[in-house]
Amino acid sequence: MKNRILIVCLLLLSVVSVIFLYHFRVEADSRIAAPPSEAPFSHDLFDQVLQEHVDKKGRVNYTKLKANPEKLEAYLDLLAVANPTELSYNGQLVFWVNAYNALVIKGVIDHYPTTSVRKVKWFNGFFSRLKFRVAGKTWTLNQIEHGIIRTEFADPRVHFVLVCASRSCPPLGNRAFSAETIEENLETATFNFVQNPAQVRIDRAQRRVYLSKIFKWYDDDFEIGYDGVADFLADYLPPEAAEFVLAEGVKFHHLDYDWTLNDQR
User: Fold this and answer.
1) 235: Cβ–Cβ under 8 A, 6 or more apart, which residues?
2) What ranges make up the beta strands (E) of the chain?
3) What value does the mean pLDDT take over residues 94-100?
4) CA–CA separation, 62 vs 59, rounded Å?
5) Distance between CA 265 and CA 263 in Å, rounded?
6) In the β-sheet with 208-211, what is the strand arrangement from edge to edge?
7) What are the residues whose beta carbons fall under 8 Å from the beta carbon of 14, sequence distance 6 or more?
8) What's the pLDDT tens digit per position in 113-136?
9) 132 burial class (0-12, 13-18, 19+ CB within 10 angstroms)?
10) C-alpha angle with apex 247: 246 to 250, nearest 5 degrees?
11) Is the overall model pTM greater than 0.85, yes or no?
């Protein structure tokens, strides 16, 4: 009897160990670095991927994309060997934002079907333990977002063009960003996010403002050029709403974040 209990315990321990190792192991993209191309870097392939697989609500047809990943993979091949330092300031920002969004999609289809990026790896591991090759180096999504985009470009509006494949994220556009239009893109994405009652909602009766948790997680970023979150919001709200969020005694509450996958299915 004791031997049977011991065997069962060992089997259970083995199963738990396998699950634990799966969720905590680092996964690195096996992409083989090719010689860099002499042609100017282009986001055209990613633009085609988005047009073909993203609807007007920002939802992705991951089923179709997983079955036909050739254009996405070809774009990732270009990212792997590109040299973004040769690009203009706006070109570099666009490079890393498009790269981030493309790699999020790649991470999803590599583990699809799933209903959330949080189910791919435990404890936010989707962003910290999946590694991808970009510009000749290996990066996690967190390293790209926090170590490059937030650090080197220091613009709070980037939070509204980085898409984490979840319903509470900003919606994914169906066109790739370009250096020529990125300023307009940033303004439009920020305006649309702040004006969306699912992300920013005012309750005048209770003197409360309900906000996306993005404003909590990155509150320091909204002090870049602003006097904090309220001052930032006021720039993108109608005059009466702007006056309300800046008034004394108004309390800010953060909404629950919906990590459900932004899947057309």
Assistant:
1) 226, 242
2) 27-28, 130-134, 137-140, 200-203, 208-211, 251-254
3) 98
4) 9
5) 5
6) 200-203, 208-211, 251-254
7) none
8) 999 999 998 888 999 999 999 999
9) buried
10) 100
11) yes
